[in-house]
UniProtKB/TrEMBL annotation:
The protein, known as: NAD(P)-binding domain-containing protein
InterPro entries: NAD(P)-bd_dom (IPR016040), NAD(P)-bd_dom_sf (IPR036291), Polyketide_Oxido-like (IPR051606)
PANTHER family: FLAVIN REDUCTASE (NADPH) (PTHR43355)
Gene3D superfamilies registered for this protein in UniProt: NAD(P)-binding Rossmann-like Domain
């Protein structure tokens, strides 16, 4: 009589692996911490190769592809320069590099840390075009808007998500709570549009894990 051996089902859960470009900035560092706290394997990069990170220029598609190989997702968390030098070209070059590098590596999932300036403050009126928008952040906001346009135009074959923060974002408490909106500024019942960098990171890693906003821009705020 033949003996039937029981089938053993594997219960091992595969660890998510991400490439985080811009891992030491205000938002990038918090995304790294949030992801690692959830058991996600993070390969962080910086332009200068800061301690604990790989050296990478996001505009270098081949470099992006080499580090993205075998990963489940690429997160782009770089900001334009704030030293008075041109802002749009470097950020668009980073976006182009990530799109091409992710394709070359066979990584479909790309999540972008975006800006709030391109959100609509009123129908047809972007936040960056309102009279009270801070002049010091205007060029950065315009560059981030161009980056969103780049992903909408050229990344249709990728599972991308662009995540805009609230109108104001700064370090603070991690509550784990936030609301999700679309292309309009998201504010509370007092008209305040705000989120901490910690809760922005929660929202971004949630989106990485759940993939509920593929192929579009969302915004997160309280």
């Amino acid at each position: 009589m033949d003996t039937v051996k029981p089938v053993t089902m594997s219960t091992e859960v595969q660890t998510m692996k991400i490439l985080l470009i811009g891992a030491t900035g205000m938002i990038g560092s918090r995304v790294a911490a949030e992801a690692r706290a959830r058991g996600i394997e993070v390969t962080g990069t910086t332009r200068g190769g800061a301690a604990g990170t790989e050296r990478l220029d996001a505009a270098d598609a081949a470099g992006v592809a080499a580090l993205a190989a075998g990963k489940d997702a690429v997160v782009l968390a770089v900001s334009p320069p704030r030293d008075g030098s041109p802002t749009v070209a470097p950020l668009l070059a980073a976006g182009e590099g990530v799109i091409a590098g992710a394709r070359e590596a066979g990584v479909r999932r790309v999540v972008v840390v975006g800006g709030a300036g391109s959100l609509e403050a009123a129908p047809g009126v972007r936040l960056v075009d309102t009279p009270d928008f801070p002049e010091m952040y205007k060029q950065e906001a315009l560059a981030q808007g161009e980056l969103l346009g780049l992903f909408r135009e050229k990344a249709g074959d990728l599972d991308w998500t662009y995540i805009s923060p609230a109108a104001a974002i700064e370090p603070g408490e991690r509550t784990g709570h936030y609301r999700v909106g679309g292309d309009q500024v998201l504010a509370d019942d007092k008209g305040t549009s705000f989120i901490t960098a910690e809760d922005y990171a929660v929202a971004l890693v949630d989106e990485l894990e759940k993939g509920q906003a593929v192929g579009r821009r969302i915004t997160v705020a309280y």
